[in-house]
Amino acid sequence: MDMDEISNPPFIPNDDGLLTLQDQRVGFGKRFGASILDGFVMLILTIILYYSAGDVFPSLSASLIDMQFSTQSAFGEGAELKTIPFMQQMAAMQIEAFVVGIVISLMEVFFAASVGKMLLSIQIARADGHKASLGTLASRWLLKSGFNILSLLAYTIVSFELYIGSRILGFVVVLGALMMLGEKKTALHDIICGTAVYQVRDVVDNQEHDALSA
């Protein structure tokens, strides 16, 4: 047997027989379901963080608001928006949601799966079905979540250009996710990074595979 076929098998063994890689890849439906579960977890953790973090995030949000709209605001010359509780609380919630969202999304780098993916027993892997390296997972995360970081940076330094750039990048990510509806079941960031999503049971462990091939 050709060694290329061993290192990049066109089929993955499954309890139901041999299926092609594309057959075993997880498509849009289950991945969208994982995203919904991530959203619920993110909402719950954000609420918990909001009521348990004390004045940490409200104070930070007040500082950011003052930095952005210190004296030139619709509320009058010299008005300090940190004195408006509603705006302070909303900004604090946004910062907390961002922090929680980053933590949840970073799980895909270190565990190859977010909370939602774990609950549905699916995992990010290489396109050929083998476990993905940390570098590959990190590159995928950066492409998928980079617009959130750009958005926070734009909000922090008050850059309209960066904000528009983050919105455009986010729009591209959303459109790229619709590519999962195709035959290959891969989003744009998967195609660029050479990854796909599989059931955990179908992902080939590289060490075990090397041992069997030796």
Give a verbal description of the structure.
This protein is mainly α and 214 residues long. It has helices at residues 3-7, 21-24, 28-52, 56-68, 85-110, 115-119, 134-157, 160-177, 188-193, 206-213; strands spanning 11-14, 17-20, 122-126, 195-199. Strands 1-2 form a two-stranded antiparallel ribbon. Strands 3-4 form a two-stranded antiparallel ribbon. Strand 1 (11-14) and strand 2 (17-20) form a beta hairpin. Helix 4 (56-68) packs across helix 5 and helix 7 (134-157) packs antiparallel against helix 8. The longest helix has 26 residues, at 85-110. The chain starts with a helix and ends with a helix. Mean pLDDT is 78; it is low at 1-10, 70-83 and 210-214.
Kindly state the mean pLDDT as a whole number? 78
**Percent helix range:** 55-70%
Q: Number of DSSP strands?
A: 4
Percent of sequence in beta strands: 5-15%
C-alpha geometry? globular
Q: Count of DSSP helices?
A: 10
Oligomer: single chain
Termini separation (Å)?
13 Å
Sheet having the most strands = 2 strands, antiparallel
List segments where confidence is low: pLDDT < 50 over at least 5 consecutive residues.
1-10, 70-83, 210-214
CA radius of gyration is 22 Å
Structural class: mainly alpha
H/E element string? HEEHHHHHEHHHEH
Question: Largest sheet, order of strands side by side?
Answer: 1-2
